[in-house]
Amino acid sequence: MNNQQNDDMDRQTLNVAFATQKGGSGKTAITVLVAGYLHYRLGCPLAVIDCDFPQYSLYEMRERDSRAVLENEYLKRAAYEQMRQPGRAAYPVRKCRVEQAPDTARELAAEGCYDLLFFDLPGTVNSAGILRTIAQMDY
Fold it and tell me: Pfam families in the record, alphabetically (predicted)?
């Protein structure tokens, strides 16, 4: 077994959430900015899980962006140029309710080799499963 295979086997995915009990405090914006910088600038393999029911702002933003790319030739060409570069494809964004987040994280980790999973959590501890999900975070 070579060193690269050893490194891949030893790699553990870290779970990270920017959390606060205040809605509208910028959790989604911080998640998008940090994920974008780490993924697109530094090449860090990551995925995002949007658990902020019912708005799912991050997931909906990705869906809007995807539709805009399909409808606009300039954006379509720019996306093609970006994605043909190694490691530059868009990072995955999944949505789920907060109580399903640990299961969604396990599914994502099994599907790909991610160093980080970011969680966009709701701005209240009154959501079902929030404490169990927060307990799963590394940071």
Answer: MipZ
